[in-house]
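Section 5.1 Outputs to date
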Amino acid sequence: MLVANDKGLLAMDESNPTCNKRFAALGIPQTLEFRRAWRELIVTTPELGESISGAILYDETIRQHQQDGTSFIQTITDAGIIPGIKVDTGAKDMAGHPGEKITEGLDRLRERLNEYFEMGARFAKWRAVIAIGPGIPSHACIEANAQALARYAALCQGAGLVPVVEPEVLMEGDHTLERCSAVTEEVLHTVFNHLYTQRVLLEGMILKPNMVLPGLSCPVQASAAEVADATVHSLLKTVPAAVPGIAFLSGGQSAELASERLNAMNLRFKSRQPWALAFSFARAIQQPAMEIWQGKEANVLAAQHALIHRARCNRAARRGDYHAAMEGY
């Protein structure tokens, strides 16, 4: 369901501090009510369910309501979108490993998953972050994060939730495309080894990885075709065919680049890939709309228009039908 019919996931699970940071950059007040209003704008966007199969929520968001009292969960479900929930509690500094992070949140996770299931969530997400730099990532960092991802996934399946497994190799740095490819392959090999050890049913999970990209400050950037080739080749080496879908994170890419690169993968490899290649974007769908909204009620309809446009562009990219002319909306 989550990767059927050329749809993808909308990641609207930013933590309150992260959401406030985005608001601050645009001069939007960083309050509970403005966060609620922004999320209501998203979930009430007309025809969103035509391109979005599932929405990943944050703990605050899953408990919120529209101004008319309708719960966000009900609004999302009525739109034909499956509600999901972010369940990790964030990436923290890893002891003894400067510059590296370990994601926390396994304590009482079983109980939290049961609560979210009762609230209506049907899938969950856990994000691990892997940085590339001098001497990193370390084997210890990759192993610790992979084990946590696998334990989370097993607990999800025990609670009746589909786990979205997100090992993100970060874009920050001056590393090459080849270096990102090597690290991504090591990370994915390790993650699937631990998923196997924890007896996670691969047919009942979604992988949410990074695209293979050169670092943001690398002097040699890659074309969409080069990114597509490097990404899919790395995935073919590491991701079992039993996994039904791969939903890429955008990781700070611009909205247009994320669509272009996803399109290139499906255009070049759709006949050869064993899994669906979909999207699970946050900023690459939301940022243009947030910039239009600016926290003002008068801008809601224009912002929703921008949001649905990006969702449709990414659905087209899943079919290999996206092209630059679509951006002249």
